[in-house]
Amino acid sequence: MARRIPAGPAPLAPLPPAPVADDPRTGIALMAIGVIVLPVMDGIAKYLGASYGPIQIAMMRFVTQILFTLPFALWFVGLRALVPRPFWLQMLRGTLIGAATMFFFAALRFMPIAETLAIFFVSPLLVTAISALILRERVGVRRWSAVVIGFLGAMIVIRPGSGIFGLPAVLPLCAATSFAFYLIVTRQLSGRSDPWSTNLQTGFSGMVFLLLVMLVADLLGFEGLGFIAIRTEHWLHFLAIGVISTAGHLLMIMALARAPASTVAPIGYLEMPSAALVGWIGFGDVPDFWAVVGIAVIISSGLYVSWRENQLARKARAR
User: Fold this and answer.
1) What is the distance between the alpha carbons of residues 286 and 301, in angstroms, rounded to a whole number?
2) Which residues, other chains included, contact 87 with Cβ-Cβ below 8 Å and sequence gap of 6+?
3) Residue 132 confidence (pLDDT)
4) 206 Cα distance to chain centroid
5) Alpha-carbon gap, residue 97 to 12, rounded angstroms
6) DSSP code per residue over 50-80
7) How far apart (Å, rounded) are the C-alpha atoms in residues 143 and 307?
8) What pLDDT does residue 165 have?
9) Residue numbers of the chain with a pLDDT score lower than 70
10) Where are the alpha helices (DSSP H) in 158-234?
């Protein structure tokens, strides 16, 4: 039976390596630093969205991820890191996170960072719903209630009159759905591949998927979705996206090596205040009262689901 990984809110769930030491404080600190810096990447993506399409920005994010991950993967794993195993699961994982990133960056063109991330945070709740409806896992009334309440929180954020009500609000929901399936595939891969190989292969498959989508958009003549020549002054921004993404997720991997996933996963919600701060400093976006209420409801529901998963896992181990 595959090992269960609590569905945390982080944009890229790495596979945890074998624990090196039981050090929860260090694990929590590393996770906190990792998720606090990630919204800076979202801010850069939002800035670049004024000049480039979301597909291209997402693709370049995976290109830079490959560039920064490849040396470490070759050093720690060797040439076998280049071979996806199991092939189709690795390809599916990369495709799903590629789609999630594309939808998320597209949403940033129309919505503030904090509200976009808040809606995206329904992904752990979607994992619970998908596990029950598709994978036939047992989900009790309390977790179903948390899922429903979490979605009500999302509706509060995107309510009529909020300024983001309409088609753009569907984009982070699409990102959350893709990411939920990505987490489920990640759960199936747990213990079957090392973190460096998996992250490298995720980068390759995500890049290939987005390149194909961009080529199709070009062929169909969708304006603004094809490739646009990158201006000299923007190369550093694209490189910064790769550096921040790689560093943030490396810190998450290190955190998971030092503390149980159930301990560090809730820390991922620190990404929310960080996103609000980046949105305020960079773009002057401040969530209104009802947006804050909706965000609080989503986070509370996600924390409850994470806590409940941890309780059920403890009971299963005690049997």
Assistant:
1) 23
2) none
3) 72
4) 13
5) 7
6) TTS-HHHHHHHHHHHHHHHHHHHHHHHT-GG
7) 10
8) 64
9) 1-22, 135, 161-163, 165, 189-193, 260-262, 309-310, 312-319
10) 170-189, 195-220
Q: Is the peptide bond before 71 cis (omega within 30 degrees of 0)?
A: no
C-alpha 17/C-alpha 8 separation (Å) is: 17
Angle at 104 between CA 280 and CA 97, to 5 degrees: 135
What is the rounded distance in angstroms from the CA atom of residue 53 to the CA atom of residue 106? 8
What crossing angle do the helices spanning 235-258 and 54-76 adopt, rounded to 10°?
50
What are the sequence ranges of the domains in the chain? 112-192+288-319
Closest alpha carbon to 53 in 95, 113, 106, 116? 106
Helix (H) or strand (E) holding 157: helix 141-157
* Cβ-contact 189, 89 below 8 angstroms: yes
First to last CA, the chain: 15
